[in-house]
Give the backbone structure.
Amino acid sequence: MLNLLDVAQTCEDIARGIFNFLAHVPTASVDITAVVAELYALGAMLRGLDGIYKIPAHRHNFTRITSDLELIVRASLRQSLRDIFEMLNRMNQAIHITSIHNAAATAAGTPIADTTSALHKRTWDGMWLFFYQQAGYTLHLRLRYYKQMLEEMSAIVQG
């Protein structure tokens, strides 16, 4: 069985990264909070499924969901998390480069190139657009669908 705890930890790590957008993109606070909540809920669902798997009386029921769980978690959720992580990573690299550039610009008395808030907003807008264009619905809704599917699988393995 795939390591659900690793995926849960990734969801929670990304949720912490997305939470940082609140301070920089207040106009999207409702959407940001919804994405953070869904990521933590996914982490909790994955931890719950892992816990159920460890109960011998329920373990045999996992054969009923193994292929669906693999498809949802390994193929789809992990790819979505990878996409988000890459976007956050690119933003963090841009913030680092921009802060170096801005320090030099300030010392030279030239205009500041960009701000951390501008980079957060651009990243958030890009992330939102990327997931919407990919599937026709928002990142928040995509994460909710994953959570709903995991909830149904949890109900199956618990009988």
